[in-house]
Every structure is written in C-alpha cells, then in structure tokens.
Amino acid sequence: MRAVILVGGQGTRLRPITYDIPKALVPLRNHPFMGYMVDFLRSGGIDGAVLSLGYLPDPIQAYFSGRDDLDGFSVDYAVEDRALGTAGGIKNAQQYLDGGPLVVVNGDVLTGMDLTKAIERHRATDALATVTLTSVEDPTAYGLVEVDHEMLVHRFIEKPAYDDVTTNLINAGVYVMEPEVLDMIPAGREVSIEREIFPRLQAEGRLRAHVSSSYWRDIGTPRSYLAASHDVLSGAVGAGENFEYLDVDPSTRVGKNVKLLPPVSVAAGCDIEAGATIGGRSALGRGCRIGEGSVVEGSILLDGAEVEAGAVVRGSILGPRARAGQGAIVRGLSVLGAGCVIGEGNVLDQGVRVNPGVILPPRSLRF
Ligand code: GDD
Ligand code: MG
C-alpha cells in the first residue's frame, strides 16, 4: 500500500523558520522531520509514498534523492503550481497511485501510533475513509470529530468555535481511504478534505474513525515544534532501550568547564566556548558557535546559529545563522529568522518573532 504525504502548505504559523525551511524538513534532534514520517509509514507496512508538494518543493525532493537508505521505499513527487488544498493535493497525486486503498498523512504530524491497526480497522468496515483520532486539551486549532459507539462519524467540524467543542477527540491527520474518495474530489481547483470531502462522506454514513492513544503532536507552531523537539530528545516518541541521551558529534569542540546536560543533541562542527551551559532538551545544528559563559536551555538552534558570550537563550528557536549578541536574552518562545542579528544587551520574550536578516541594534528592545 502507498501513502500520500501532504507537504504543500506554507507553514505560516511556523514563520519565520518556514521562510527558509519547509515545515517538512525542520529538524528534530538534528534529523529532518520527513525522516520520522518515513519511519512511521514503513512501520505501518507502507511501501512507498507520493509527496504532495507546493511550497518550497526543491529542498524536499533534494532530501529524498539524497537518501540512499530507503531500501525499496518508493518516492514520487506531485508538485502543484498553485495551492490545491488538502484534498486537491491528494487528487494531484492520483497518477502515482495504483487504484487500491491508500493512506494519507498530513506532513506535519509526529506520532507513535500503530498504523497497521488503523488499516485493519478500516478493512473491517464498509467505510470509504477512516480518520484516526487523538485527544487534545483544546480542539479549536484542529478538526473536531464526533463519533458514536460504533465509531461512525456524526460530525466533522474543522477549527470549531469554543461553543462547538463537544469532545476532545480530533482528526489526527492520518487517514486510510478507498480509491472512490479520489473520484469525489473535483480536479483543478482548491479543495479541502476537512471542509468538503469529510462532511460529505459523513452525511453518506461512509466515514469512520479509529482512536489512538499513542504519542501525537502536530509540529506546526513554535510551541508545538519546540515541544516535539523536547519529546524526541527525551525519547518520548517510541524510542527503545538504547536511546542515547547525550548525542554530541565527535567533531564538535567543547571548551573547559562546559556543562552539557542531557538530553541534548549537538551536530557536527559546533564550537562551544569555556564555561557555557547547554541545558537539557536543547538541539544544536551543524556549525553552531556558543560563546563563553553563555546559556542555551530547552532551545533549538539551526545550522550556523551563534550565541555570543554571556547571552542566554531559553525555550526559543534560532533560525539558520541567526545570532544572539553578547549578553542578549532570548527567551519565552522567541523565534529568530535566518541570519538575523540580535545586538548586544537586547531582551526578547513573549513569543516575539524576528524576520530573516533583520538587524536589531544593541539595547534597542527590552521585553
Ligand atoms: N499539497 C498540499 N497543498 N498540501 C497542503 C496544502 C495544499 O494546498 N495545504 C496544506 N497542506 C499540507 C500541509 O503542508 C500540512 O502538512 C497538511 O497539509 C495539513 O495542513 P496544516 O495547515 O498543517 O493544517 P492544520 O494543522 O491547521 O489542520 C489539519 O491537521 C490537523 C491535525 O494536525 C487538519 O487536517 C485538522 O483537521 C487536523 O486536526
Ligand atoms: Mg498542521
């Protein structure tokens, strides 16, 4: 069975990171997200995927063509010239499918769910599509799904208002479907599976659900991306006994009295100066420079990011080559775009986002 992976969205909520890196490739523990997706699909017995691409397709194709360890897991690419939406993106992949049942996944879902169970459940019913469900605190950012005692879907409401919240069960973004569903999707225009196709299938009594209680997270916001990174670092996403909590590339230079508090992941070629602290649940990409006495805690630093002497980065994301100047404080889910420079002594907090390339003069911002 093959899968369609929907990775054509712009990743708006993860800007400014997604101006440079598509959401599908943001690293978790220094591995591009798509690697986790492929592992998930293979563990469910899926033997190939069609990547449904739109925004920044080239780096995603380059990632797959650069992988020589896919062992027969076939990959095709369906690229849209304009956004076709979540159903349009599936329709656009149809030419690469074999006419049998298929799996569809949102390309930003990190999960330890057992896909084989969802497929089995689907096969045991007359459903045209089976939606996997997971439970979340606040369903308003997702697709809320009401089911009856036989797991028949009674209501599917995408991004419900608070007043519509009747359950904590939401669409986990992993579907098993019959090829007939593809014929229900009009070609050549933007179509949403959540707003058009699922409500129709529900009305016809052909949409069923399968609930999973396994690990699940959509990585599409800074908060959830950071949380997913923390979870992967601490082995919460279905890791085995041999999980390595201190994952530091041997080519990294570590100065005197540096504290590396596990779990951390430090990629190749980093330079960590004397007295710096890399606090638990941080991930440093390739070639990061960490200055003397600085502190990085619970954060993600992408390739080439720099934290100068005495600066503090806490619970935040630094884009590729972004720099936190001497004594600067970057905390509280701040997100720095590629190559931006936070001058000496600035204090960033409360989820502030700095666009790529912006240069913030010394001591100009104090949250
Ligand atoms: N090919 C293609 N074309 N892919 C798209 C397009 C498009 O026009 N628009 C979005 N996608 C991809 C995104 O790249 C992402 O991987 C996936 O479809 C879902 O889009 P999101 O923008 O992340 O949707 P969401 O998170 O707000 O909501 C969806 O996911 C939730 C679970 O994470 C919905 O399916 C909800 O019902 C669901 O609960
Ligand atoms: Mg999403």
What does it look like?
This protein is α/β, with parallel strands linked by helices and about 375 residues long. The protein has two domains: about 220 residues, Spore Coat Polysaccharide Biosynthesis Protein SpsA, Chain A (Alpha-Beta Complex); about 120 residues, UDP N-Acetylglucosamine Acyltransferase, domain 1, CATH 2.160.10.10. Helix content is about 20%, strand content about 30%. It contains eight helices and 33 strands. The protein has a seven-stranded mixed sheet, with helices on both faces. Strands 14-17-20-23-26-29-32 form a seven-stranded parallel sheet. Strand 9 and strand 10 form a beta hairpin. The longest helix is centred in the middle third of the chain and has 12 residues. About 50% of the residues are buried. Guanosine-5'-diphosphate-alpha-D-mannose (GDD) binds next to helix 4 and strand 11.
Features:
18% helix, 2 domains, seven-stranded mixed beta sheet, binds guanosine-5'-diphosphate-alpha-D-mannose, binds magnesium ion, 8 helices, single chain, seven-stranded parallel beta sheet, 367 residues, Spore Coat Polysaccharide Biosynthesis Protein SpsA, Chain A, UDP N-Acetylglucosamine Acyltransferase, domain 1, elongated, alpha/beta
Give the helices and strands, then pairings.
Elements: E1 2-6, H1 17-20, E2 27-28, E3 31-32, H2 33-43, E4 48-53, H3 57-65, E5 74-79, H4 85-91, E6 102-106, E7 109-111, H5 115-123, E8 129-135, E9 143-147, E10 153-158, E11 169-177, H6 180-183, H7 193-203, E12 207-211, E13 216-218, H8 222-233, E14 246-248, E15 253-254, E16 259-260, E17 264-266, E18 271-272, E19 277-278, E20 282-284, E21 289-290, E22 295-297, E23 300-301, E24 306-307, E25 312-314, E26 317-318, E27 323-324, E28 329-330, E29 335-336, E30 341-342, E31 347-348, E32 353-354, E33 359-360
Parallel strand pairs: 1-4, 1-6, 4-5, 8-12, 14-17, 15-18, 16-19, 17-20, 18-21, 19-22, 20-23, 21-24, 22-25, 23-26, 24-27, 25-28, 26-29, 27-30, 28-31, 29-32, 30-33
Antiparallel strand pairs: 2-3, 6-11, 7-13, 8-11, 9-10
Bound molecules: guanosine-5'-diphosphate-alpha-D-mannose and magnesium ion.
